[in-house]
Structure formats: C-alpha cells, structure tokens
Amino acid sequence: MKKINLTRLGNFSNSLTATVYHAQPRFTEEIVEIFDFARKNGLKIAPRGAGRSYNDAALRGGGIVLDLSLLRCVQAWDSEKGILRAQPGLTL
After folding, report:
1. Which of 77, 68, 48 is nearest to 60 (CA)?
2. I want to staple 59 with a disulfide (CB 3.0 to 4.6 A). Which of 5, 12, 18, 22 is the partner?
3. Is the pLDDT of residue 1 over 70?
4. What is the CA radius of gyration of the chain?
5. pTM (2 decimals)?
6. Would you call 58 exposed, middle or buried from its count of C-beta atoms within 10 A (0-12, 13-18, 19+)?
7. Separation of alpha carbons 30 and 57, rounded Å
C-alpha cells in the first residue's frame, strides 16, 4: 500500500476542497491497515469510489478519504438476472 498522505482533495469540479489524509489501497486486504491507522489516530473515514461526485460527499476534512478507485474488478455477473457485483472503483 502507498503511504497515507496528508493532502488537499477536491470534488469532481474542484469547487469544494478539504485537507485530508488520503489512502489508496490496491488490494482489499490493505483496507484493514487503513482502519487500524484511523483507530490509532482517532480519525474518521469517508469512502470514495471513482471520485465522480459533484458534491462533497467524499471529502472528510481532517479525516481519512479512503480512495477506492484502484479497486475496480468485476466480482460476479449474472447475465440472466442482469446483476453485477463489482468493487467500488469500477466505472461503467
């Protein structure tokens, strides 16, 4: 996993920004490390998928933005029912 860095992030249009800890796991197992870091440091976590929101839903000033954009695998597809299960960073 990359380090958890203090940085400034914005929404899709950068009309809203916040100083946050940014964590971007490459594997689901790394999420446990991020939650451990948050717990030890008294920080709250806001999940962020593909980062395409126009509002500030995934900006957590002073907390951790859990950037899940690298987790973009299709986990299951049922073509008969039309049901897709995917990781949160997948875009369609």
Report:
1. 48
2. 18
3. no
4. 14
5. 0.78
6. buried
7. 23
Distance, CA of 42 to CA of 64 (rounded, Å): 10
Q: Tell how far CA 32 is from the center of its chain.
A: 13
Residues 7-59 have pLDDT tens digits of 888 777 788 888 989 999 999 899 999 999 999 999 999 888 876 665 656 67
* Domains along the chain with CATH numbers: 5-86 (3.30.43.10)
- In the predicted model, what is the mean pLDDT of residues 64-69? 91
Contact 45, 59 (CB under 8 A): no
Give the 3-state secondary structure of the chain: CCCCEEEEEECCCCCCEEEEEEECCCCCCHHHHHHHHHHHHCCCEEEECCCCCCCCCCCCCCCEEEECCCCCCEEEEECCCCEEEECCCCCC
